[in-house]
Design a protein that fits this description.
Elements lengths: L1 H8 L1 H23 L6 E6 L3 E2 L1 H9 L8 E6 H5 L10 E5 L3 H4 L3 E2 L7 E5 L4 E2 L5 E2 L5 E6 L9 H10 L9
């Protein structure tokens, strides 16, 4: 009985150490599984549904020279780190949100975005991975991308635009 009393009297200490351990190992895991912006392409999609891992794996099949990984995230992910939104390499943005993110975006031709999903026809690139809604979506390059000059972001954007297929259920 004394053993259980001792354990329960120190329960807050055990919980604190468990929490610390989870945070520490999560940080270590993040360091091991990530790389510098110069060695990865970050794709952000302003959509409610996204098969991010599957899309990243597909894009990694033809990565440019010197790129170690492609990371695909929904905008929910980047909103936690709003200061770095402009450092993303590729953005897929709904037509209704273009003004909101205009300062962070540049088109593959240096001026405007490329329509990646046409709501009128219900067709778009990578539709099996990206859950588009009932409006047009555009692909942009990030204005602060480290891969604007070397063309690697544009190369992955071209690969993304060439991915054809119907959305699930179509």
């Amino acid at each position: 009985m004394r053993f259980f009393r001792n354990v329960f009297s120190q329960l807050h200490t055990f919980v604190l150490w468990a929490l610390f351990s989870v945070l520490f190992w999560g940080w270590i895991f993040a360091l091991i599984t990530d790389t510098s912006p110069a060695k990865k392409i970050a794709v952000y999609c302003d959509v409610p549904e996204l098969r991010d891992v599957d899309l990243a794996v597909e894009l990694e099949r033809h990565m440019p020279e010197g790129i170690r990984m492609v990371k695909v995230h929904s905008f929910d992910y980047v909103m936690m780190d709003i200061e770095n939104i402009g450092k993303g390499d590729i953005f897929i943005v709904a037509a209704s949100d273009l003004e909101k993110y205009a300062e962070f975006l540049t088109g593959p031709d240096g001026e405007s975005g490329v329509k990646i999903y046409d709501a009128a026809t219900g067709t778009g690139a990578a539709a099996e991975y990206i859950g588009y809604t009932d409006e047009d979506f555009y692909l942009f390059l990030g204005s602060g991308s480290v891969h604007l000059e070397d063309g690697k972001a544009a190369q992955v954007a071209g690969q993304l635009l060439s991915m054809t297929g119907d959305a699930p259920g179509d």
